[in-house]
Amino acid sequence: RASCVEQERNNQAIDRMVMKNCLRMLVHCNVNSHQVYIEEFENHFIRTTETFYKTESQNFILQNNCPDYLRKIEERLGQEEERAEQYLDPKTKSRLMEVCERELITTFAEILVKNDSSGCIPMFDKNMIDDLARMYRLFSRIPPTLEHISGCLKDYVKDLGTKIVTDPENKKNPKKFVQEVLDLRKKYHNIVSVAFEQNRNFERHLKEAFEHFINLDMRAAQYLSLYIDEMLKKGLRGVSEAEIEDKLRNVVTIFRYLSDKDIFEDFYKQHLAARLLMGKRISDDIEKTMIAMLKAECGHQFTSKLEGMFKDMDLSKEMNEKYISWSAPQARRDRAMAETVLSANVLTTGFWPFPDVPECNLPKNVVDCCKHFKRYYTNLHSGRRLKWNTSLGNAELLCVFNAGKKELLVHTYQMCILMMYNDSNTFTLQQIQEKQIFHKRTRA
């Protein structure tokens, strides 16, 4: 009767009911065991099955590419399972499937994965999700064979990532660098999620691959911060709330791969400070969402200074509103003060990444406003000391030209030079230098 099975495997019709009855008779020949069934049918059946699939698989793998071979063996395994259900004794199924899986899958697992023209790497490149999913399902029948796929995934992603990191063009373009890393992760995260059913071992291998190449160049932390800076200044404008959260979550995932997160923190503080002080940010809510995500990753200590910077800005806004009300009576009496409006941000030194910069000689009317603000502040907070950092300031000037009036938005240093032209129409560079607007640092 084993020959009947081989006929069926070769697409010849057999009477399955007759086959089932014959095999059942063999089973019932011995009341207490299946000895007769095993000796007269099962052992021979398993040997012929092994021979059949050993020959067929060797021929088929030579004649077909990897996806076609996988489809063929998936069909064959389905046929064998159906056969076992239809007319074989239930105890035969495990032996049958074991030999089929060994001959069809285990023997060729490594060859299939490493096939240069149609194995895992070509399927990764072409994003052949269905074929990769079929390979994963089949190999899952013999769990050790999955290591061939996960190992190939890890090595290939490491190679792709290393090319991104070492690409000379990417070293000149931080945005391009980070975008390529994000695109790489999006593609292979989808492959692991869909084709490989979120297998934890595959997820771990993917994570290790990204951690390997992202830390090959210490500039990755700086580039990621620059990419986020660009996003939060204008890159997320007009994007839906769901898309914003998705984009922020993606960059936080890349941040997670960084081994030295302190480098990222230093750059992020500098970029955040510039966005806050220059008003170049899309939304405070988006900024705070980003900080909340970083906090969830690294804890309160990592983001405490970032949160402190936001708190300073909120308090400064409130303080400026109260200062305007407090100074209004004097502004009505003092024309110079009325014409010069000061808005000061009172910032905690320990939170902000301020450089040590030379002092600046401000115009007299601005100095008077600074003294007035300082008097107001020290009355509220006795014992605190204010130190002006003019390198981070800007000014709006109303300038009168021959062609008419213009409003200029300039840096504080530019304002100091332009204000000199209230006294004369022309200055030489030497005369500007003699004004000592910028104090030189003294060296010991």
Structural class: mainly alpha
What is the number of beta strands? 2
The outline comes out as: rod-shaped
Separation of the first and last Cα atoms: 102 Å
Order of helices and strands: HHHHHHHHHHHHHHHHHHHEEHH
Nearest-angstrom radius of gyration? 37 Å
**Average pLDDT:** 87
Helix content: 55-70%
* Percent in strands: under 5%
Strand order of the largest sheet: 1-2
Determine the number of helices (DSSP H or I, runs of at least 4 residues). Answer: 21
Unreliable spans: none
Q: What can be said about the biggest beta sheet?
A: 2 strands, antiparallel
As an assembly, this protein is single chain
Overview of the molecule:
By secondary structure, the chain is mainly alpha-helical. It has 21 helices and two strands. The protein has a two-stranded antiparallel sheet with strand order 1-2. Helix 13 (219-235) runs parallel beside helix 15 (261-278). The N and C termini lie far apart (102 Å). The model has no long low-confidence stretch (mean pLDDT 87).
Quick synopsis:
By secondary structure, this protein is mainly alpha-helical.
Key features of this structure:
mainly alpha; 2 strands; 444 residues
Secondary-structure topology with pairs:
Layout: H1 2-9, H2 16-28, H3 35-63, H4 66-86, H5 92-104, H6 109-114, H7 120-125, H8 129-139, H9 146-166, H10 168-172, H11 174-195, H12 200-214, H13 219-235, H14 241-257, H15 261-278, H16 284-298, H17 300-333, H18 335-339, H19 364-380, E1 394-401, E2 404-411, H20 412-419, H21 429-434
